[in-house]
Design brief:
Elements: H1 4-20, H2 25-51, H3 54-80, H4 86-111
Helix pairs in contact: 1-2, 1-4, 2-3, 3-4
Length: about 110
């Protein structure tokens, strides 16, 4: 059950938590926690899509796509707050875009 998409998402989680744990205390428990939770929900959605039937797969993939888009925005907010450097943002965003492409490809394969 360990797809490439799931592996990329878990790798990204490990990378992001290294940074969110270093957020200033007030933002660690708001913005940092929200980023962690969204990424964990994305991982959960991917696992659900791997296990469920095709009708539920589409809903799980849609949720995962919404979560990844929201994550990009939240990580950008961390850059705007000067918590993260732009180079870190570009690294995380490129990983999220790659995950989104995989999820969209998966959705398109279900539509056939």
């Amino acid at each position: 059950m360990n797809t490439i998409t799931l592996q990329k998402c878990t790798d990204l989680y490990e990378q992001i938590t290294d940074f969110t744990n270093k957020f200033p205390k007030p933002l660690r428990y708001t913005l940092g926690q929200k980023i962690d939770n969204l990424l964990l929900h994305t991982i959960q959605n991917i696992i659900q899509a791997e296990i469920d039937y095709s009708i539920k797969k589409d809903a799980a993939l849609n949720s995962a796509l919404i979560n990844t888009e929201t994550l990009k925005i939240l990580i950008r907010l961390a850059v705007n707050k000067k918590i993260l450097k732009e180079t870190v943002y570009f690294s995380f965003a490129s990983n999220l875009i790659e995950i989104q492409k995989m999820l969209n490809g998966w959705r398109k394969s279900l539509a056939k």
